[in-house]
Design goal:
Number of helices: 5
Bound molecules: protoporphyrin IX containing FE
Strand content: under 5%
Oligomer: single chain
CATH superfamily: Fumarate reductase/succinate dehydrogenase, transmembrane subunit
Helix content: 55-70%
Shape: elongated
CATH topology: 3 helical TM bundles of succinate and fumarate reductases
Radius of gyration: 23 Å
Largest sheet: none
Number of strands: 0
Distance between the termini: 94 Å
Amino acid sequence: MTAIPAPNSVPPRRFNIEKWGWIYMRGSGVVLLVLIFGHLFVNLFAGEGVKAIDFAFVAGKWASPFWVVWDTLLLWLALIHGANGMRTIVNDYAKGPRLRKLFLGAIGVSSALLILLGTLVIYTFDPCPADAAPGELPSFCSQEK
Ligand code: HEM
């Protein structure tokens, strides 16, 4: 009688990054649906449409902490979601470990940079720059002087 060999088994890991990545894609997907369609509705539909979007429009929105938090969440969730999705695609299709490492590195560096720059823009944004033409500024800038 021949013995059936024991199946190969992977020792259980305490933190399974693939499992949490899978859960993150679904969780962030649901939140992104609200954030993306809320963003499109308010910017393009509720007001005067795309014509109204200029420097003053953005400055007016970021005068409210609500939109600062909304846009920060949109930036972080979408970028991490997109980067993790790209990581999955690279793992599925990249031929060879060196090319895979290169692509994964490029995704990691570019998304970290974009998150950093985007967050800096949101939190260091000056709605009333001194050298701007007056017509381009939001109305609350003139009241401050
Ligand atoms: C409307 C909101 C969104 C929802 C509901 C959503 C949902 C999902 C889900 C559930 C997956 C996993 C699919 C799978 O594992 O087979 C996924 C994958 C992915 N998502 Fe999103 N997503 C949204 C927005 C975005 C945005 C804004 C980006 C880009 C920044 C993006 C980029 C990706 C990529 C690159 C993948 C990987 C595709 C693949 O594995 O073939 N998604 N999305």
